[in-house]
Fold:
Amino acid sequence: MSVTLQCPGYPEDTLRSLADRLPCRETQLTSLLSLMGQPDQYSYPSVFIYGHRATGKSHVVLTIMKDLELPHASVDCVECVSGGLLFHQVLSAFFGPDAAALLPRCPSLSDFVRLYKQMSSSTPATQTRYIILDRAERMRDMDFSLLPALLRLQELVNDNVTVILLSEIVWEKFRPNTGCFEPLLFHFPDYSKAELVQILSWDHHPSYTPELYASYINILLGVFFSVCRDLRELRHLAVLNFSKFCEPLEKGEAKESDIHKLWKNIEPHLHRAMQTVYLREVSSMQWEQQQMDEKEATTLRGLSAHAHIELPYYSKFLLIAAYLASFNPARTDRRFFLKNHGKIRKTNFLKKHEKTSNHLLGPKPFPLDRLLAIFYSVVDSRVAPTASVFSQISSLVTLQLLSQVGHDDQLDSPKYKCAVSLDFILAISRTVSFDVVRYLYDFL
Amino acid sequence: MSETPVTSSVSKGCFVFKSTSKKRKRHVGVGGYLVDGSDDNGSDRFRICQKLWETVQMNTEVIQDQLNKHVLDSLVEFIKKHDLGNSPDVWRQRSSEIPTAALMLGVNVPDHAMTFRSLCNLLQDSVTPFVVSVHAKECAAVKLLIHKLLEQLMGKGVSVDEEQEDETALLQRTQCTISALCQWYKTVTKKCPQVSPQRKANLKNNDLPRSLPVVVIFKDFEAFNSQVLQDFILICSRYTQELPFIFIFGIATSPSAIQHRLPHSVSSLLCIEVFQSLSCTQHLASVFDKLILNSQFPFKLSSRVIQVLVGIFLYHDFSVQNFVKGLQFSMLEHFNGQPLSVLCCQKKEALLFAKTLSQKNVERIRHLPSFMRYVETQEPQEQVQLLTSDEHVKDTCQKLLKNLHKYHKNYYPILQCLHSLTSLLPKFPLGKHIRELHVSCIEKNLWETEEYDSAMQLLRILAKDELVAALEKCAEILKSAKTKRMQNVLQQVEDFIGRLEALEGVTSEESTGDGVILEKNRRTDLFQLQKTLLEKESRRTKRVNPYEVLRSQVIEFIDSLVREYLTPAELQPLSEVCYYSSSAVLRQRLNVSPRTSIQTALSHPFHYLQNESLKTNAGTISSAAPDLCIVYKLHLECGRLINLYDWLEAFVTVMSAAEDQDADSEEKGKFDSLKHARFIQAVSELEFLGFVKSTKQKTDHVARLTWGGC
Ligand SMILES: Nc1ncnc2c1ncn2[C@@H]1O[C@H](COP(=O)(O)OP(=O)(O)OP(=O)(O)O)[C@@H](O)[C@H]1O
Ligand SMILES: [Mg+2]
Structure:
């Protein structure tokens, strides 16, 4: 697999090992290297690399930087809650923490540029400096002038510097405004199944042969490839389940060549993993524990198995009322909650757009008054409008069972939405023996 | 964290923290306030009340610690496991997952604080000094969350080590990032093993303490902004190699909240395990057992009051903390409002007080309904004595107090026995929880209720092994009761058990048959059960076997116990001394309805002001009422939008109605600037109270915000 990379200015054996360590990314590697040019040459001012999760963007770029020992500042934009942090990290990576300490308290872009210029004039770049901005999509939430400035930073500071942006999102969704400097776009395509096998087989277990591990990876991908192509997840799953795969070998029940037998052993196990660990229903720790205990019975309850919530009596009714208010058109309240509403059939109500199920449209906001009106008519006893009833509403909001819409005016008839599912409401109303379905317009 | 008290103890365990001195000082003030009531033993009452409150506090904390012990221990276990789990085995690099404990706490949010407090203490004592707990309120943005984290961790580092101070100050000034925390962590852990000898002692069994984890507790997970959480987790996961984070999510609803809040890409960075904490109903039951169903605790609640408190718990908040607060409030009310509550204390002390009752208090005793009832049952000459001689009343009072204490000592064991018997029955005719049984016992003659009859009927068909098991449980309960009479009862119960066991084999088939029916009927309805019961009854008359004879003897015995010992508390003379019964006051105070009170105040100003001139007929508007009330009443007659000018005119009309007689007719209806100003002020007050607000829909109009009322 040794593609001979021709890049003058870099040590050749490092380049070779680089190519070995980044399987399936040879083309990207070569084009990146040729783009970078020789270390002392100016490079393109900004490069935008995009591709799906775990397609090796960060990995490839950082490995190049580290192996070739290029001066670089790697910044994860999630961490940069303010622009100042970004400047700070860049400056301290290039010129040391002392330089970064010179930044004023809330540094502006021009502070950064000024300081950078000042520093680089005393220590001019002998090699191209790289600023790597990971998860660059977060830049869009920062100061709007930051991104355009960084794109032409080379020009601004007059130094041999290149900004590399890494993102999962295409450039079209970024482009700040017209007239901004267009970076060089670079796509990292998804790995194919064969490539995934090749990469995953790379980290085989030291005490087993690479061939065995490769066949294990093949089986694993056979199960998971249809649902997950995320290299990180697959690697995680591979590590988690390998001991189970080796179990027959350990016990002496099968030989390494008995692939079919091993397959029969692991396949159902992997399917179970798909429904549990993969979805994080069960933690990896618990999963391993279970494997070790060899208890096949599904004793572990997943996260969503604990869906039941104990609520105070009136909270249950408030929630039911909120559900009804969210999913019934307001006009139909008379029909449901007035004692002698007469004979009004569903068809009389029907407006055109309401032919579709309200449940498909999702919950609609309703004012507090309506919630209370429905509450008083569904709850079976007389309830005083006490402070506790109101505070129950707000605790339902903090528990995120209700959600408040329109935060601007809290005093004036706040509006809410019900944020629970039909199943949940059915379970709740069963505990208070209230037939909620009878009151739902969709089920009339 | 800063307010959690620290213990000087080296071992781990449960600690009770008394309230701090600051609170005491305020209480003393309250005490002084109570003393003012001249000769009512105010200070004594205050002292008793305070002592009782301290026992309540101590007991509740101990209960909580006991109940939480299991879940807290398993949490610590989990953290320790992960502490070691970061094994140097390079091949399995699970390290990027952050161990996360989802601590299910239930929706009773007010109670969580105490759990978190003990959790923090426990972790700091036995696992790691680096424990941080954060509230959603203070973390509206990632920046704030990280700041909180750094503040709590590094602030502590400073206090440990003096020379570090300027260094951390510098860090805080420049950077508020996790990487700064990393630096700090490295420097601290380098010298930490020598710093804390107590930790070393704890860790001796695990050969080398690898690293001290940094535990971050999210107290109210649901309330956190999900974007903040996601970002924080993403950031932290970048540092798992250097900083062994452990998260604890305090979740009030269900673990699926995590999945709702976090997308897969983020939750895949966590290694989540669920820990179920105690349920609040169970917690309430223990508190109830300890504080209310306990003869050692002299202060009692009447059935109504219990119903109010339990009602608030079940219907509104599920909060044990609030229940205890309610108890505290009843105590304060009782000791403040009832001068005779000076007798509501331990027996010895109470007798002492009874000896030295003031004349006023003797008179008060004579007026107690229960005492009057008692007097009526006495011989005529005794009656005269009781009504004339103060000394005699004091003596009788002592006797009655002794009886009351005896009554309580016998009442609770028998109550528990009855509960242990009836809780076996299908559908729990006498209530599932002992508190329900207790309420019906102290309220009325239990044996006169229908429920009691049906319970007894069901008991009459118990299978032998069930009956024996239940009786054994009763014997167990009675063993801890100290009075002679209870020992007597215990004797009899044991005798019954012996005789039942002696029947061995004779009627086994018959008895098991009964049991099966009972078993089956647990799921069918009560009506059917009664039918089969009747059938059984008729069959039973035909052939009576020894087990059945014995069984009905047992039931008779139990019935006699109930009639003797479970008499309603109200009938006990002097019960008012110990029982707090103003349920209406309690409800009004604990379950307030602010809107109703505001509306009452506005529409019937007399209600609060008690000023004769404000008394009005319903429907009329008096000009004597405060401006606000007039404006309020006028606005009730308007639609959604109120024209300010019309309103003003109406207001002025009402105002000038009083001046009608003496004013010129031409001046009537006109308004001067004073009235105008008063009107404006009243309207803005109404706006402040939330009844109207300005609107942009129509000029010179305000919008009404409430409906109904008057
Ligand atoms: N070609 C490859 N050879 C070896 N390992 C790889 C390769 N591509 C990716 N990986 C591994 O996959 C993991 C994920 O890759 P990386 O972090 O670079 O993804 P990414 O594209 O930056 O994803 P994200 O958009 O989520 O940041 C890394 O741990 C890396 O080791
Ligand atoms: Mg990346």
User: Anything to note?
Assistant: The pocket of magnesium ion (ligand 2) is lined by residues A 57-58, 134, 166 (CB under 6 Å). Chain B has three domains: 94-278, 284-507+541-579, 594-704. Chain B touches chain A through 70 residues (CB under 8 Å).
